[in-house]
Amino acid sequence: SLLRDDDLTQETRDLISSLPSEKGWLVSQMYQFQGRWHAQALLQGLLLCQKHFEAKDSDIILATNPKSGTTWLKALVFALINRHNFPVSSGNHPLLVTNPHLLVPFLEGVYYESPNFDFSKLPSPRLMNTHLSLFSLPESIKSSSCKIVYCCRNPKDMFVSLWHFGRKLAPQETADYPIEKAVKAFCEGKFIGGPFWDHVLEYWYASLENPNKVLFVTYEELKKQPGDSIKRIAEFLGCGFTGEEEVKEIVKLCSFESLSCLEVNKEGNKLPNGVETKAFFRKGEIGGWGDTLSDSMAEEIDRTMEEKFQGSGLKF
Ligand code: A3P
After folding, report:
1. Less Cβ crowding at N or C end of the chain, within 10 Å?
2. To test ligand 1's pocket by mutation, which of 65, 71, 96 has the most ligand atoms within 8 angstroms of CB?
3. From CA 126, how far away is CA 316, in angstroms rounded?
4. pLDDT tens digits for 208-259?
5. CA of 56 to the centre of ligand 1 (A)
6. Which residue ranges does the record assign to the Sulfotransferase domain (predicted)?
7. What pTM does this model have?
């Protein structure tokens, strides 16, 4: 599992022993490295990835905070860039029989779970995803001309999505953790994968400074205007569209309704790391946080968001 520490190298153990650590929700101990709080396993993935990953100019990296639309973005961009090999309307599209996480490798996850995985064998253009901060990306991703598509989501929805996902993933570890405490830690940034705010802002400013390198999209705009968002992504990746019909077909194939009903995404199907594919499909809505957060918790996140995003032009 990506949350355990059974397979750490001595190098990781040595590094970890020198890092600031905190008790947290979901993982009992988190470690601060390059400004973010990590579980041990993904920290090792990060280190190996920084050391060994060699980006190519043609690579496409999907970057997200967890629970911000990763699965959806993987499906959309996979369908988009492969639409000539795998016509979307063909009826035997890979997405109909494979969970998106198995079609698009998770960089630091693979480096932890299968350090011998050969990234050079992936078909070109290579499509991969990461939760790493912009700062922590392997140098070659930053210095090459590879493209980064970043997807962000309203923090209240993202938090609530992670809250439910985490409780499914580690019921025992999370059972007694009060949600008020988790909200506070999330806002303060002392939260697994956090600070959420800095992750978003780093990519946001990079997208403004270097629009050919980083494209910033939101879960909300994908939901409200999926066609326009896909065209924007296609243009950014240099594979613009000719037909409206094709756009509509991609939107439909990758919709929550379509993917979540497939046999491969139903009960009983697991990723190699043991996580049920079904866990990646819960509600798929904007503003669903209301059933989990109290008014005061929502206000706390809103207040933090206003403070952190003030002056950035970023809004939810
Ligand atoms: P909810 O828990 O709010 O339902 P990630 O893929 O980054 O792990 O994020 C998971 C979130 O995206 C979950 O949100 C999940 O339901 C939602 N999701 C997954 N596939 C989706 C799709 N095709 N369209 C819209 N939302 C999707």
Report:
1. N
2. 71
3. 31
4. 999 999 999 999 999 999 999 999 999 999 998 878 999 999 999 999 999 9
5. 29
6. 57-313
7. 0.97
Strand partners, 217: 151
Contact 237, 78 (CB under 8 A): no
Q: Mapping DSSP to helix (H, G, I), strand (E, B) and coil, where does residue 267 land?
A: coil
HSE (CB half, 13 Å, CA atoms) of 173?
17
Q: Contact 103/95 with Cβ under 8 angstroms? A: yes
Q: How far does residue 68's CA lie from ligand 1's centre (Å)?
A: 7
CB 144 within 8 A of CB 212: no
Q: Which ligand 1 atom sits closest to the C-alpha of 258?
A: 23
Q: Atom of ligand 1 at shortest distance to CA of 223?
A: 25
Residue with CA at minimum distance from ligand 1 atom 23:
256
- Measured N-to-C along each axis, helices 70-81 and 226-236 cross at an angle, to the nearest 10 degrees, of 60
Tell me which of 84, 131, 164, 199 is the catalytic residue: 131
The string over 27-58, giving b where at least 16 C-beta atoms fall within 10 Å of a residue's C-beta and e elsewhere, is beebbbbeebbbbbbbbbbbbbbbeebebbee
Nearest of 231, 252, 233 to residue 242 by alpha carbon: 231
Asked whether the CA dihedral 113, 116, 121, 127 is positive or negative, the reply is positive
Which tokens is 11 given? Answer: 């190098």
Report d(CA 280, CA 161) in Å as an integer. Answer: 9
Q: Is 164 a catalytic residue?
A: no
Q: Which of 280, 283, 286, 292 to mutate to test the pocket of ligand 1 (most atoms within 8 A of CB)?
A: 280
Distance CA 309, CA 316 (A): 10
Query: What is the architecture of the domain spanning 36-309?
Result: 3-Layer(aba) Sandwich (3.40)
CB under 6 Å to ligand 1: residues?
64, 66-72, 157, 161, 164, 254-256, 259, 280-284, 288
Hey, what amino acid is at 117? F
